[in-house]
Write a structure and sequence with these properties.
One of its GO terms (molecular function) is UDP-glucose 4-epimerase activity. Homodimer. It holds the Pfam family Epimerase. The chain has 362 residues and is an alpha/beta fold. It has a domain at 12-181 and 234-260: NAD(P)-binding Rossmann-like Domain (Rossmann fold, 3-Layer(aba) Sandwich), CATH 3.40.50.720. It has 10 helices and 13 strands. The strands form 3 sheets. A 7-stranded parallel sheet has the order 3-2-1-4-5-6-10, with helices on both faces. Strands 7, 9, 11 and 13 form a 4-stranded mixed sheet that branches. Strands 8-12 form a two-stranded parallel ribbon. Helix 5 links the parallel strand 5 and strand 6 (172-178). Helix 6 (200-208) crosses helix 10 (318-331). It is globular and about 55 Å long. The two termini are 16 Å apart.
């Protein structure tokens, strides 16, 4: 099944942090749909090779006000999608001032420039980390906001800045709070490459590749189906689709906020078992004590996004998430810096998931 979007291909969209994991997939989908895309990134965590070839690219540090004003002076942008941020939860606990200063400061720089240059729409990449941990029930937009780490706190501050900017200046804003982005673009030419890698699915696949000896499981006595933590994983293509739908919605309304997740929680053991099935390789595990602060279950309720924008997580079943990620990691074992390798035999064709449609449709 393919995504269809009514679009105005003449729109210019600035994608900050568009060389990162989620930002690059959103930039790719925008290009496929006919938008004119400019990616600006300092490549501190992103990769130049992740930027779509049809997008313009600007190497820039968005913490510098003069730099971002120059970017806006060179082209009139209809919308900004803001992904640029520090995103490591663990690191944020040891560097809280850096996270608040850089994430909020960068957002303020880009947002002020957008307002000054007449940009009509602004979408913020936010996070479920703004919410209070909630075991046993899914998390909707009405959940208590109580960030458990400085990263989540910085994103909450960014959301409040957007709220006041829309009220004072009229720029239409939206925040998308997503859970665990995963998977990769079909075909194996775009995927996840974090350094260091902290996300579970890439780490599990590194074990399947022989790059790690085992995967650590932190706690097996949680009140879940198998005792291990449960998380909501949403395919990065479904995230990209949510961003495009939100961009279209901002043409006629503002002050939008959506939780974006599959609504299906998977345990750590389920991830490992699914990866073993997809790769055909054993993935040893070692049990470790619980980590402080890990909630038993975090699962999204994306009903508002489904109802208001017609969004559906078409690619977020666990098999598709892991399979597309495995294609990417198999072809690029060293990430974007490695050469493209043939896909391993027996793991299936790279074309099992259709990309979103390139043609507009009502």
């Amino acid at each position: 099944m393919k995504h269809h979007h009514p679009i105005e291909p003449v729109e210019n969209v600035l994608v900050t942090g568009g060389a990162g994991f989620v930002g690059s997939h959103v930039a790719w989908l925008l290009c496929e749909l006919g938008f004119r895309v400019t990616v600006v990134d300092d490549l501190s965590t992103g990769h130049r090779a992740a930027v779509p070839p049809t997008a313009s690219f600007v190497l820039a540090d968005l913490r510098q006000v003069g730099t971002i004003n120059q970017v806006f002076a060179e082209r009139q942008y209809d919308a900004v999608m803001h992904f640029a941020a520090r995103t490591l939860v663990g690191e944020s606990n040891t560097r809280p001032i850096d996270y608040v200063r850089d994430n909020v400061g960068t957002l303020c720089n880009v947002l002020q420039a957008a307002i000054d240059h007449g940009t009509r729409s602004f979408i913020l990449s936010s996070t479920a980390s703004i919410f209070e941990s909630r075991d046993g029930s899914d998390i909707d937009e009405n959940q208590v906001v109580s960030p458990g780490n400085p990263y989540g706190e910085s994103k909450r501050m960014c959301e409040r800045v957007l709220f006041w900017a829309e009220r004072s200046h009229g720029i239409r804003t939206a925040v998308l709070r997503y859970f665990n982005a995963a998977g990769a673009k079909p075909g194996g030419d775009l995927g996840e490459d974090h350094r260091p890698e902290t996300h579970l699915i890439p780490l599990v696949l590194q074990v399947a590749q022989g790059r790690r000896p085992h995967i650590d499981i932190f706690g097996n006595d949680y009140p879940t189906r198998d005792g291990t933590c449960v998380r909501d994983y949403v395919h990065v293509l479904d995230l990209a689709d949510a961003h495009v739908r939100t961009l279209i919605a901002l043409r006629s309304s503002g002050a939008l906020a959506y939780n974006v997740g599959s609504g299906a929680g998977y345990s750590v053991r389920q991830i490992v078992a699914a990866a073993e099935r997809v790769t055909g390789r054993p993935i040893p595990t070692i049990m470790r004590p619980r980590r402080m602060g890990d909630p038993a279950a975090l699962v999204a309720n994306s009903g508002k996004l489904r109802r208001e924008l017609g969004w559906k997580p078409l690619h977020s079943d666990l098999q598709t998430i892991i399979r597309t990620a495995w294609i990417w990691h198999s072809r690029h074992p060293g990430g974007f810096g490695s050469s493209c390798l043939p896909f391993p035999p027996g793991a299936g064709s790279p074309s099992a998931v259709d990309p979103p449609a390139a043609q507009p449709s009502d």
